[in-house]
Design brief:
The chain contains 12 helices and 14 strands. Helix 11 (about 365-385) crosses helix 12. Helix 7 links the parallel strand 11 (about 225-230) and strand 12. It has helices spanning about 45-55, 90-100, 150-170, 185-190, 205, 210-220, 245-255, 290-295, 310-320, 340-345, 365-385, 395-410; strands spanning about 15-20, 25, 30, 65, 70, 80-85, 105-110, 125-130, 145, 175-180, 225-230, 260-265, 305, 325-330.
Length: about 425
């Protein structure tokens, strides 16, 4: 008699998922974080941002993750980021949360500190784990100051306070950004972190700050709110964070009790998260799938995979294999706010994206920012009610981006 074989696990993108904290996602599609740059000059979420999330909330995704929300007004990632340090803007933050969740989507606030890649305020010196400049034109103009242990304790409090305020305002939880070369990612990197104290020198010490932040945030938001982390599978840099060490970080995060790990990769010096680094096989459709499968072999923690996935068939295949539990989409939502609904109905395969503008020169930082500005221009049009947008050309994008940067630089925020 032949041995019994286990039937494949069938998980459709439309099936719900209950996370360890008890919150249930209505389906397996997530709008991954994209920096909206739609905050007010004073750092609050503006009406345009609220209308944008209202459109995305009606678009069918089970999970909406905001773009960067800064924990500290002394350092922000891009112009017009939202900042949440105290309860002065809690009403507008609550409006934002309600707008995205009104149709049933779960809202997470991504909280972050840029560390040494802060774009501003321009009059302030950036900070990092060590006093080492990033090797990227523009970001290497100001040498960062190495954080003291007292500074680290202050930033831990800030992460926890922002998380507490987010949940108090109506968000279902937070995503702690520990990827893409921002502060927590810098601490994880042997290249950026050359400290000789308890926060550097070996893998255990390099991940200490992140694990302390996770413990503080969990205490602040309680056991029934979602605690997610965005983590690099690798930095894709020589002497940076590599996969083996990243897997150990992920397992430590599971032990710390997080509810959802989003897998990404790269940073400002090696931007794999934008599709620059890809495999040449079928897995081009999921940039970081191999890492997810390695982690799944050692972990039962809910995993979210973002990067390059464009067809419903492939989404269902990856979910059925059990490699991941949630599929994240970013750029498709910058073009079609209801893309999730179409994917759930099987009417949007494959997702074909218009091309963001580029300058035909080897200016990676400029082209990366052009892509962000192009997305932000699209977001404004979606907020105004458009159902499908292709964005402006390079010249209009540069002009709009320059105006945004200038407006932010002229403030003390």
């Amino acid at each position: 008699m032949p041995p019994k074989t286990r039937a494949p696990r069938i998980v459709a993108v439309g099936s719900p998922l209950t996370l360890p904290c008890g919150v249930t996602l209505p389906n397996r599609l997530a709008k991954a974080a994209m920096s909206e740059q739609l905050g007010d000059i004073d750092g609050g979420p503006g009406q345009t941002l609220t209308r944008l999330y209202s459109a995305w909330g009606r678009g069918g995704a089970g999970l909406l993750i905001t773009g960067n929300v800064m924990i500290d007004r002394r350092a922000y990632v891009e112009p017009r980021n939202v900042t949440l340090e105290d309860d002065r803007r809690l009403e507008s933050v609550s409006n934002w949360a309600r707008a995205g969740s009104r149709a049933g989507a779960v809202m997470l606030m991504q909280i972050n500190h840029p560390g040494r890649v802060a774009v501003g305020p321009l009059h302030r010196r950036p900070v990092g784990p060590s006093a080492l400049r990033p090797q990227v034109i523009g970001y290497n103009l100001r040498k960062p100051r190495a954080l003291s242990v007292a500074d680290i304790a202050d930033l831990r409090r800030r992460f926890a306070r922002t998380a507490e305020l987010a949940v108090a305002a109506g968000f279902s939880g937070v995503q702690v950004h520990a990827a893409h070369g921002y502060l927590l990612s810098q601490f994880l990197s042997p290249l950026a972190n050359q400290r000789a104290d308890g926060y550097g020198g070996n893998p255990e010490n390099r991940r200490r700050f992140l694990l302390e932040v996770i413990a503080d945030v969990r205490e602040a938001i309680g056991p029934t709110a979602i605690l997610s982390v965005k983590l690099n599978s690798a930095d894709f840099q020589r002497r940076g964070l590599e996969e083996d060490e990243s897997l150990d970080v992920a397992l430590a995060l599971e032990q710390a009790g997080i509810d959802l790990l989003e897998i990404s990769g790269g940073n400002y010096e090696a931007p794999a998260m934008t599709g620059v680094v890809q495999d040449s096989t079928r897995e081009r459709e999921a940039y970081f799938l191999r890492y997810a499968e390695q982690l799944r072999a050692r972990s039962r923690m809910p995993l979210m995979l973002t990067g390059g996935i464009r067809t419903q068939d492939f989404m269902n295949e990856v979910l059925a294999r059990g490699a991941v539990d949630v599929i994240g989409l970013g750029r498709p939502f910058a073009v079609r706010p209801d893309i999730a609904a179409d994917l759930l109905e099987g009417t949007a395969e494959p997702v074909v994206l218009p091309t963001a503008p580029r300058i035909p020169l080897p200016l990676a930082p400029v082209n990366s920012y052009l892509q962000l500005a192009w997305h932000a221009a699209n977001f404004r049009r979606i907020a105004a009610g458009e159902k499908q947008v292709s964005g402006p050309g390079a010249l209009r994008t540069l002009v709009a981006a320059g105006m945004t940067v200038t407006a932010r630089a002229l403030t003390q925020f």
